[in-house]
Design a protein that fits this description.
single chain; 2 domains; five-stranded antiparallel sheet; five-stranded parallel sheet; Argininosuccinate synthetase, chain A, domain 2; Rossmann fold; alpha/beta; 14 helices; 19% strand; 425 residues
Length: 425
């Protein structure tokens, strides 16, 4: 299926979600040639530090009529990462959704920019086999239903070799740096790495694929402990120091990443119906989720924790599948928010040799009462009541088992052995 034909018009304006990479670089002249349109290259800063360097200047030199950079790091952290953290969001229990969480914000900024600049078309560099095309297109259709969408790589069915040849033919300036077989996407919450030998699930990821977590030989031999303070489910301090959300995530990425925390090697199910091997580095995300879960276990009752785990799974699926702006995601988030009023306290996490392990936690809302749990002389637990509780707790099983035994006895003519034992009147 090809992209729908769009009417051409003099000086048609297209706002392109521009990352500075190969896909969006070749998209600039492609849009100009195919649609006769001028391109506004829009880069949304969600924490991809290395990828931003010189991106706008390259876009202009490669033919963009304008190049904009929107600093969205704070909005990304507070409007997307923090709700996901409160929901302990992990797709298929593994992936903290770093790329998936950034897409609805980029799409929203793309729509806002198009409306403000009078453009009737937006564009992105997604392929036809990935998740991001779904996330972008669904969000754009939802927030800007009157906008046309152009996806040059998908419409052109281009592979990387074709794109490189296209760029060379037109003398495009590409991002400089060491040659790499990997495709990388970064933001505050994580780094995703694809391509090359990583596509083969039987292949061990080479150390060259990792950047935030370094080489195992460089991991410190001694553990490091970090104290994370939470207020209503949101992290506010590291080791007693108040930090804004962006600074907090960045510092924890550096500290946990130095110990090798955050490596993820995952075979996941894409929205389009295929499986793929994915490699991620998410030091801060995994550390914070581990700490947040530990605090919730201290402050929330068992039935609420159990039900919330079901909500977390569905919430994670919706984010991964590009449905951030759905009523269901908003409703689930509203439920999660109500659970966080007592998730306040401090958690100590030990970082060492690729692991982030909670070693201490404390909360004024703790449901753990020492006078009930202690085995010492201060115990106030009424142990004498346990016998009656156990009898009533197991009574349904007793009765059901006795009934089954009686039925089997009637069928084979033998006398049943187990009978329900009822308490004396």
């Amino acid at each position: 299926m090809t992209e729908p034909e769009l009417p051409t018009a003099p000086k048609r304006r297209v706002v392109l979600a521009y990352s500075g990479g190969l896909d969006t670089t070749v998209a600039i002249p492609w849009i100009g040639e195919k649609l006769g349109a001028e391109v506004v290259a829009l880069t949304v800063d969600v924490g991809q530090e290395g990828e931003l360097k010189g991106a706008s200047q390259r876009a202009l030199r490669n033919g963009a009529a304008d190049a904009l950079v929107v600093d969205a790091k704070h909005a990304f952290a507070t409007e997307f990462l923090w709700p996901a953290l409160q929901a302990n969001a992990l797709y298929q229990g593994v992936y903290p959704l770093s790329t998936a969480l950034a897409r609805p914000l980029i799409a929203r900024t793309l729509v806002e920019t198009a409306v403000a600049s009078g453009a009737d078309t937006v564009a992105h560099g997604c392929t036809g086999k990935g998740n991001d095309q779904v996330r972008f297109d669904v969000a754009i259709h939802t927030l800007g239903p009157g906008l046309h969408i152009v996806a040059p790589v998908r419409a052109w069915n281009m592979n990387r070799d074709d794109e490189v040849a296209f760029a060379r033919q037109r003398g495009l300036e590409l991002r400089t740096g060491p040659a790499s077989p990997f495709s990388v996407d970064e933001n505050l919450w994580g780094r995703s790495v694809e391509g090359g030998q990583l596509e083969d699930p039987a292949s061990v990821p080479p150390e060259a694929a990792f950047e935030w977590t370094g080489h195992p030989e460089s991991w410190p031999h001694e553990p490091e402990e970090v104290r994370i303070t939470f207020a209503q489910g949101l992290p506010t301090h590291l080791d007693g120091r108040s930090l804004d959300p962006v600074a907090l995530v960045r510092e924890l990425n550096a500290r946990a990443g130095a110990h090798g925390v955050g490596r993820i090697d995952h075979v996941e199910d894409r929205v389009v119906g295929i499986k793929s091997r994915e490699t991620y580095e998410c030091p801060a995300a995994l550390t914070l989720i581990e700490a947040h879960r530990a605090l919730e276990r201290l402050a929330l009752p068992r039935d609420l924790l159990s039900f919330k785990s079901e909500v977390e799974r569905r919430f994670s699926d919706l984010v991964y599948e590009g449905l951030w702006y759905s009523p269901l995601r908003e409703a689930l988030q509203a439920f999660v928010t109500t659970t966080q009023s007592v998730v306040t306290g401090e958690v100590t996490v030990r970082l060492h040799q690729g692991r982030a392990v909670v070693v201490a936690r404390d909360s004024e809302y703790s449901l753990l009462r020492p006078e009930l749990t202690t085995y010492g002389a201060a115990s106030q637990f009424p142990q004498e009541l346990a016998v009656g509780f156990i009898h009533l707790y197991g009574l349904p099983n007793q009765i059901a088992y006795a009934r089954r035994q009686a039925a089997r006895s009637a069928a084979d003519g033998s006398d049943g052995v187990a009978r329900a034992v009822l308490p004396a009147a």
